[in-house]
Amino acid sequence: MASTPAVHRARRSLVFLLVILAALAGVITLGVFRGDATWTPKLALDLQGGTQILLAAEQTDGQAVGGEQLQQAVSIIRQRVDAAGVSEAEITTQGSQNISVSIPGKADEATLQRIEASAKLDFRPVLATAPAAAPQNPAGGDPAAGSDGTAPTGDPGPVDPDPLPKGAGDPAWITPALQQQFDAFTCGSNAALDTRDRPADRPLITCDDSGAAKYVLGPVELSGDVITDASAQMASTQSGATTGGWVVQITMNQKGADAFGKISTRLYGAQAPQNQFAFVLDGSVLSAPTMQGQILDGRPSISGNFTQESAQALADQLKFGALPIDFTVQSQEDISATLGTSQLGAGLLAGLIGLLLVVVYSLFQYRALGTLTIASLVIAGVLTYLLLTFFSWRQGYRLSLAGVAGIIVAVGFTADSFIVYFERIRDALRDGFSIGAAVEHGWKRAFRTVLASDGVNFLAALILFILAVGNVKGFAFTLGLTTLVDVIVVALFTHPMMALLARTRFYREGHPASGLDPKRLGAVYRGRAQFRAPVVTGKSAGRKNARSRGEAERRQTIAERKASENAGATAGKES
Description:
By secondary structure, this protein is α+β, with helices and mostly antiparallel strands. The chain has 15 helices and 15 strands. It folds into four domains: 34-42 and 339-508, Multidrug efflux transporter AcrB transmembrane domain (Multidrug efflux transporter AcrB transmembrane fold, Up-down Bundle), CATH 1.20.1640.10; 50-118 and 327-335, Alpha-Beta Plaits; 120-322, Gyrase A, domain 2; 533-567, no CATH class.
């Protein structure tokens, strides 16, 4: 039998899926041989155990840190740990003065340094800014940059000119070498994480906390300890009327007020971007507002497109980031898994039971067609495993018991997609389509339903991932990932395989074990859209024929009933 366009499309889809699987397996294999990756996903704290660090927070003057300041420190540490690519970490307060940090696996020295470093806020003038785009010449790149053409750090290194520029805001800081490194710099993993590691008397290349813009900043002109308070307030005019917007109001001590008065005088009226001033926390630009006047009283305000929540968040970062909080390591120890292999085994057993129930139902309901469901689930499992292993290697993802639960839940979603597709094929057969046409017609109707269902599931997982923390975030990640895998498998494996199976004699002729048996569908089809009622011979033929006709009528579609009624009415008129 000659190949049809549907068969060609099916074969291309299967080849494309095979390329995806082979590419993932090949990349992981390369990582394993290089010693960077493993053949299995990394496990989270509840399944593997890890390192627990107990930190005591104190101000430099020996005074105790308040509860609100401690919560802000927890938030800063969590951001640092996440930026290091460590997921499923648990960071909580312990008592009124301590912070407990639990990290899956063995914590490396760099991660420990990020955790223990105090929050450091600096004020630097903006020398240059640009959108956070990809490097312009990643192939040639900067000799000091990494192999991918990106700068390996936010520190531009030693500056050439001698003598050095006098003022912190002098554009002469931007040498040709610094400009080349700035052009190659991309936001993300190479953004600075702690300004204490960057010389205060040298320029800094970094990004804002959203990763939307990158900056060349001059040397530090003020440290954050000059801020005595920061709060979110409604913006007001000179007459005292509110404008409806939000601003962040900063209060400085006398030293800060004097220094900031000189800075504002220099920046006010300067050409952009030299009229901007950056607030830098942990090497990331919190805000880089434009100087819109001389501020001599030490009470500058930051305006912009703030909501109440974003203004309060910035105020907290400025207020608490400015505090000279030091962390003393009280203890560091290895901890065992909080749940262990027994709970993991119980979760996997529950998933296996659910999977077996799906298999039994598929075989009972769809006969041999159920084997396609089983094969699709196997392909979905392989693809999910490879993706989890890849993300564990490249993004630091760790699989927790909550993540396992997300995978188990997804088995039901995936089975729903197959059921919708098979039932649409059966409906098309009842409407008189041949098996090949029924597969294509049923796919068009089913795929819209699958996309709508999976779209809702993915949106729910995305919102949960954004809003949640800890293990709940792990559940949302695997739920969203397996939802995408479901769409890929149904489109690139289940439907193409069904299109190829429909060309075999076993399925084309509606074998009783195929799942497309015409008797079970309530009608007997033959050729293209030709139906006849089942014929029964024997002593009780009349009773069996009546039962068969009743079954056939019960399974008729609305279109068939209308067509039958119209045919009867036409015959009556002719007679």
